[in-house]
Design brief:
This protein is an all-alpha fold. The protein has 4 helices and no strands. The relative contact order is 0.20.
């Protein structure tokens, strides 16, 4: 998958799931400040990534949940390893 496409899907997911918090969301937005990912929201993101991109995430992968871009980069790396 083209990294830009993954990024666009990740951004669309956040904008759909968190409309009130994502008005100014972009590729470099800090998700901890913009979306305020709590444990439930983090699980929703994990389920989205695993289902939409066909990758499995591990606990260490959560370190990459900083920005939409770092998530898209993680997806790209995971897809390359399949």
């Amino acid at each position: 998958m083209v990294p830009q496409r993954a990024l666009q899907q990740v951004l669309a997911f956040f904008k759909e799931q968190f409309p009130d918090a994502s008005a100014d969301l972009n590729a470099s937005s800090n998700l901890q400040k913009t979306i305020l990912l709590d444990s439930l929201a983090t699980m929703e993101v994990i389920m989205f990534i695993e289902e939409a991109f066909g990758v499995s995430l591990e606990r260490a992968d959560l370190d990459h949940f900083e920005t939409p871009q770092t998530i898209a980069d993680l997806i790209e790396r995971k897809q390359t390893l399949r």
